[in-house]
Write a structure and sequence with these properties.
This protein is mostly helical and 95 residues long. It has three helices and no strands. The chain has two domains: 48 residues; 44 residues. Helix 1 crosses helix 2. The two termini are 16 Å apart.
């Protein structure tokens, strides 16, 4: 059997390119299905991040907090992979 490898930069690029239209599609479906509720929920989320009086700081928080949550989730996710891999890999080094 022939081994095939894929460049990780290509995978990352294509993953983002494919993800964006899918996310936009589902956001559109949510918006069209629950228009008023969807808009109100977005306003509520924005209002919940209004911690400081400074509008620029609040904007930075709105952009930073979701990305920080995603970053932490990725780190935990990859830790789980490494933790399980450690216990289930073959001991002789061959996989």
């Amino acid at each position: 059997m022939k081994e095939i490898s894929i460049d990780s930069k290509k995978v990352q690029f294509y993953g983002i390119v494919i993800s964006i239209p899918i996310i936009l599609f589902f956001l559109l479906i949510l918006y069209l299905t629950w228009n008023e509720l969807f808009v109100q929920n977005l306003k509520d989320i924005k209002a919940s991040f209004q911690i400081f009086d400074n509008k620029k700081v609040n904007t930075i928080l709105i952009l930073l907090i979701p990305n920080l949550i995603i970053f932490i989730a990725i780190v935990v996710h990859e830790f789980i992979h490494g933790f399980l891999w450690h216990f289930f890999q073959k001991k002789d080094g061959n996989q």
